[in-house]
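Troubleshooting: if your tokenizer reports a length mismatch, compare your output against this known-good record of 312 residues.
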Amino acid sequence: MRIVRRVEHMAPLSGGCALTIGNFDGLHRGHQAIIAQLRERAGELGLPCALMSFEPMPLEFFNPQAAPARLSSRREKMRAARALGIDIFVWARFDARFASLSPEAFLTQLIEARLNARYVLVGEDFRFGKARAGDIDTLREFAASRGIEVAPLPDVHVDGQRVSSTRVRQALETGKPEVAARLLGQSYRVSGRVVTGERLGRTLGFPTANIRLARKPAPRYGVYAVWAYLADGQRRAAAASFGVRPTVNGREPLLEVFILDYDGDLYGQRIDVSFEVFLRAEERYDSLEALTDQMHRDVDAVRRHLQEPSAS
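Known-good structure output:
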């Protein structure tokens, strides 16, 4: 997959492309249906599939405090897009200059001059340009004058409701990773590098891989049964605590992963954590002994849910 870091700096795609545009946060089942339709039409037209997304997402630029939690980082989004068959991933840097583009400039300078789109797949509620002045009718009028095909996005429904990134966030925020998995088409995952922590878990008999997340996190604070995917390809059952660690007066959100029956060194490695079952909410304990007792119960619960027998 080719990656374009800044759309405004890219050389024009002389052969054209089939294009879809959006935040694509989480690459859920609705997004997967979009990409499947894009690939099908691109194959018929003999064009590469291109996906353009924004960094930061528009709301993060205009109102960072009100921006929702991200479901996927840049790295995770690109990795998922590659797996789904996208040929060209295009980033648009959403800054003051980009936000000031008129709808006409957005279409002529980017969609036409840079991307040379011959087929565009967007939703009926698609808005673009300064003050969101451009809409689907603006795009259709422009496309018709240049022989560009515009198609509506397919809707995907789960449990009787349209799949959306908002629904995925709501499921995670309420401690329902199994609902998020149905919407995503797979379990919710985060990826990060293992960093050195305070080593408190090791002193309690539960050495953890500490992962600081670069983005505002979506899941509810608490303890989860998770799968940890290690850099060497192993999949290991684990108990993960996500939160601010009130028992030890923590402040910043931290993901701590205790991998069952494992004594390897993970520092500096990048691992994936797949959220499977919400076990309990984050709590403050009166003593480290009480916390340790609860951690033993959490590990037992992980074994029950993920059916991992203890190593003998």
